[in-house]
């Protein structure tokens, strides 16, 4: 088997051990980590037409041209079938693999070339997945990310997620080394600031489309990749604090981020303000802006001088002054004198990173403030708007499809397919299956 070789290649390419394990668990479930694997259904349907192949003979015929480039991309008219480690399916993705192999004089089933193509594809076409796999220290985080955003099968429900996670953990237990984390406090601060800085210019979206693009689908509805990655039920809410949560999670993984922030997720400024009385800014601290009689905005302190503070903030704008709910990620500079005397600075205990997260964890429950958090409203047939859209997102993420067996369309309009999915969810959780998402169903689905 190629397992050890694949794990080493992925880690050497920049993935964390958890990221490599999460990717390999998904590849195992897709192809068995067999680089010349042809989708079983493809071989079956070709056999029905009198074309009998095995994985080996199919690959050999692609290599020698008996199966043409076009036939490899389109094995059967109007159908798409997977091939290789990642079971690449779409003609455009298979085409790039084919051309790379031919340019190198390698077999289409060559493991080294497929690994090179896989890493390049992640870097170039799946940047958000690459970011997570190269920063996360949570195998579940990595496994779910690859499943939902890279492999993208029709079914991404709990059963499939657990199957992929179990496979991922097997690789982690087999290959991951438990080396002591030697990162210093300064290095830890630099890491989180580098991640935050890389997000400058990101604009919130008008809908759930193009969440990973910095500028496409820009709007003013508070839809972001940050909510999607940390706490999707709050999608559409102000996100300055969640941007901070996201940066810490990407830098150190979910487990350590929880300990650094002392609760999870950090989504409400007064919660963190209640945890500190510090009034002295330091590089890497979390600034809690005081405006209008409350702690209303936040960001990460990048630099401190005698007269000014430089920050990186989410959900702000480049305009001068404290701008809450401004719609983008910006670097800003404030005069010390312009900030309220009530301004606070929460300083995460970065020694937790150096110790590998061994400091005892104390997690404070999230404060649920009705003027900030997501307020549930009843969703039934004919309901439109934010609540319907968020419910569809949650049901789809949990694997509940429409009456046609297809994933729900996230259009914010609760029609018969959404009602069907609600009923199936209610049946599965022993609720009254009336197809109406009221208080009891909301409480079950999001834990309010």
Overview features:
single chain, about 450 residues, alpha+beta, Lysozyme, endopeptidase fold (from Nostoc punctiforme), Muramoyl-pentapeptide Carboxypeptidase, domain 1, 3 domains, five-stranded antiparallel beta sheet
Overview of the molecule:
The model is unreliable at 358-374 (pLDDT under 50). The chain is 44% helix and 8% strand. By secondary structure, it is an alpha+beta fold. It folds into three domains: 3-175, Lysozyme; 181-369, endopeptidase fold (from Nostoc punctiforme) (Alpha-Beta Complex); 386-446, Orthogonal Bundle (Muramoyl-pentapeptide Carboxypeptidase, domain 1), CATH 1.10.101.10. Strands 4-3-2-1-5 form a five-stranded antiparallel β-sheet. A hairpin with a 3-residue loop joins β2 (294-304) and β3. It has helices spanning 3-12, 17-31, 40-48, 55-64, 69-73, 91-104, 111-125, 127-133, 139-151, 158-175, 185-198, 225-230, 240-252, 254-261, 269-273, 351-354, 386-397, 416-428, 439-446; strands spanning 286-291, 294-304, 308-316, 328-335, 344-346.
